[in-house]
Amino acid sequence: MLGHKYSHVCMHFQADCANSCAVYYVVNINQMQQTLEKEIEMLKLSRRELEQYVERTDMWCEFAGKWRIDICSSNVSITI
Questions:
Q1: pTM for this model (two decimals)
Q2: Phi-psi region for residue 73, left (φ > 0), alpha (ψ -120 to 50) or beta?
Q3: Is 75 helix (H, G, I), strand (E, B) or coil?
Q4: What does each C-alpha distance from 47 to 61, 65, 72 come to in angstroms?
Q5: Domains of the chain: which residue ranges?
Q6: Could you give the C-alpha distances from 34 to 24, 37, 60, 66, in angstroms and in order?
Q7: Which long-range contacts (C-beta less than 8 Å, at least 24 apart) are formed by 69-78?
Q8: Which of 23, 18, 21 has its CA nearest to residue 10?
Q9: What phi, psi does 19 have (nearest 5°)?
Q10: Could you report the per-residue pLDDT of 23-75, keeping only the tens digit for each?
C-alpha cells in the first residue's frame, strides 16, 4: 500500500485516467454513430433499388405475352 504522501498523486492519476477514458468513449461513440448512419443510408439506397427492381419485374410479368414488336427496317453490317 502506498503511503499517505502519495495518495494525492494516485487520486490525480485515477482522475486523469477516468477523463481520458471518458473522452475516448465519447469519440468512439461518435465514430460508431457516424458509421451506423452511413450504413443506414446505404441500406435505404439498397432498399429503394430493390423496390424499383420489384416494381419493374411486376410490370414485366403483368405484360408478359402482350408484347408486340414492329420492325420497319433492318440493317446488318459486319466489320472485321
A1: 0.50
A2: beta
A3: coil
A4: 21, 29, 40
A5: 4-61
A6: 15, 5, 39, 49
A7: none
A8: 18
A9: -65, -45
A10: 666 667 888 889 999 999 999 999 999 999 999 999 989 988 887 878 888 88
Distance of CA 2 to the CA centre of its chain: 51
Provide DSSP, 11-71: HHHHHHHHHHHHHHHHHHHHHHHHHHHHHHHHHHHHHHHHHHHHHHHHHHHHTTT------
Residue that has been written with the C-alpha cell 465519447 in this structure: 26
First-residue to last-residue Cα distance in the chain: 91
Write out the three cell numbers for 31.
465514430
Q: Tell me the C-alpha distance between 25 and 19, whole Å.
A: 10
Q: Please, are residues 2 and 10 in contact by the beta-carbon 8 Å criterion? A: yes
Q: What is the H or E stretch that residue 8 is in?
A: helix 7-62
